[in-house]
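ok, trying the design again with the full structure, not the truncated one.
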């Protein structure tokens, strides 16, 4: 028990390294880093997670226009050394969004900016953000990443491939032997091929971090209840970026029928039941949801029947 408010989140080893991270991480992106969220809510969410044993935080230089790292850096202070900080490299903000740039100079500049915003001299995990096959096999790029590691500004190297072509990129990255961590979209809607790649990574000693582990919770009953600006932001983002998944989410309605758990909790348990997953990193701006997510760490595995039903829906 880490505090009266929750049971401590369990830890898992970070691949073949000697680091241990909580099996649930803190997603410092999305609405958490949106300037519209008040600073005290942002702080209470982060510290509630940390009090419950969450010891790793995921962010990125382009999240919320650079504000995510800045907000995190302002909060961390002396607690930084207790936490495993993960950020990204290879994407740069532009007026209309972001562009990809994995050239050594651009990556060094990006990492320097991240360290300044995070107010630290090193990050624990630096992941290539949305690389293509060419990027993860480019010798100059890999050489520059290895240099960050030997210089001490980065502890471990990872990649976070974009959903569209992610599995091929992940397979090439696993084969390269360069990476310690793989961040992959993995949730109840993931096809069997995703689980195969996760298994390959685990066998190669690579830590697997599940991003979007709740599939943005579009199948959870609470998703359609728009009660705040944040709820509206999430629904609009869902309709803009994953309209097809939103329309297909009815297929997962049965997740809402599990006694004693919400649909989001069932979905998170499904991800954690995979022994090849090191950790899942959900995003939330609601304390109640944060606590529900954390409670999943101590919940029993799903029944075989429910797991099979989820697999059939995803196939
Ligand atoms: N390219 C990349 O590297 C990349 C891309 C995407 C995501 N990520 C990482 O993954 C993290 C999570 O991604 P995400 O936030 O987009 O997706 P997600 O965690 O799958 O879903 C977040 C959504 O689920 C809701 N939610 C969270 N807990 C809930 C609960 N217990 N019950 C009901 N609803 C719940 C949130 O709303 P409420 O706020 O209302 O709870 C939000 O709408 C990010 O913060 C980031 O660290 C990385």
């Amino acid at each position: 028990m880490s505090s009266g408010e929750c049971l401590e989140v369990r830890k898992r080893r970070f691949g073949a390294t000697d680091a241990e991270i909580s099996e649930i991480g803190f997603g410092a992106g999305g609405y958490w880093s949106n300037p519209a969220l008040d600073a005290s809510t942002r702080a209470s969410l982060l510290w509630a997670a940390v009090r419950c044993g969450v010891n790793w935080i995921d962010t990125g230089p382009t999240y919320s226009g650079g504000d995510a790292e800045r907000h995190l850096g302002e909060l961390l202070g002396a607690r930084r050394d207790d936490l495993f900080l993960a950020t990204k490299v290879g994407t740069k903000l532009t007026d209309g969004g972001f562009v990809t740039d994995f050239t050594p100079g651009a990556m060094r500049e990006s990492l320097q900016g991240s360290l300044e915003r995070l107010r630290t001299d090193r990050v624990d995990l630096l992941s290539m953000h949305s690389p293509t096959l060419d990027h993860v096999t480019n010798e100059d790029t890999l050489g520059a990443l290895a240099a960050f590691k030997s210089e001490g500004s980065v502890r471990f190297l990872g990649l976070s491939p974009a959903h569209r072509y992610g599995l091929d990129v992940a397979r090439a990255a696993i084969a390269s032997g360069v990476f310690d961590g793989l961040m992959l979209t993995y949730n109840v809607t993931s096809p069997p091929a995703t689980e195969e790649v996760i298994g390959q990574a685990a066998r190669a000693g690579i830590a697997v971090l599940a991003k979007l582990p709740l599939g943005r919770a579009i199948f959870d009953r609470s998703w359609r209840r728009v009660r705040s600006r944040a709820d509206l932001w999430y629904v609009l983002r869902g309709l803009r970026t994953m309209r097809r998944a939103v329309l297909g989410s009815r297929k997962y309605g049965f997740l809402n029928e599990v006694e004693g758990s919400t649909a989001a909790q069932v979905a998170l348990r499904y991800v954690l039941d995979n022994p090849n997953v090191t950790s899942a990193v959900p995003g939330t701006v609601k304390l109640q949801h944060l606590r529900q997510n954390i409670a999943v760490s101590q919940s029993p595995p799903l029944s075989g029947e429910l797991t099979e039903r989820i697999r059939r829906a995803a196939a």
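Keeping the full-length input from now on. The first helix runs from residue 39 to 51.
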